[in-house]
Design brief:
CATH topology: SH3 type barrels
InterPro entries: CHP16711, YopX-like_C, YopX_protein
Structural class: mainly beta
Pfam families: YopX
Protein name: YopX family protein
Helix content: under 10%
Shape: globular
Largest sheet: 5 strands, antiparallel
CATH architecture: Roll
CATH class: Mainly Beta
Domain YopX protein: 32-128
């Protein structure tokens, strides 16, 4: 069973905050420690790590090199049925689509060969070419 934790992007301060900035309240309510209740986007941990041991979260951008040494950039998504990914860029063309509805197992296929190179909030330039 994967560990459940979150990080969130503070839209006002444009800063990524981790699960250490969250706390669980009684009755399983999740509260965010922002004193002025600013808007934020929350991202869930996939339970997977990249080839360098870095945790992979929803919204991360992965670089994957295949056997032919061609690089792919993929955005980690929550598809409603599990974690999946969307190809942002590859060596032959730019694309922007979900590759099926992959569960955590589908993403797991790539985690050993992938590297987190950024995320959609702090590194929006990595999304260039996505539709």
């Amino acid at each position: 069973m994967r560990e459940i934790k979150f990080r969130f992007w503070d839209i006002v301060w444009k800063k990524m905050l981790t699960h250490g900035d969250l706390w669980d309240a009684p009755f399983n309510e999740l509260f965010i420690s922002t004193p002025d209740q600013r808007p934020y986007n929350i991202m869930q941990y996939t339970g997977l790590k990249d080839k360098n041991g870095r945790e992979i979260y929803e919204g991360d951008i992965l670089q994957i090199s295949n056997k032919e040494n061609k690089d792919y950039h993929m955005e980690v998504l929550w598809t409603g049925q599990g974690f999946g990914y969307r190809i942002i860029r590859n060596e032959t063309k730019r694309s922007g689509y979900i590759v099926g509805h992959h569960s955590e197992r589908g993403l797991n296929f790539y985690n050993g060969a992938s590297e987190v190179i950024g995320n959609i909030y702090e590194d929006p330039e990595l999304l260039e070419g996505a539709e």
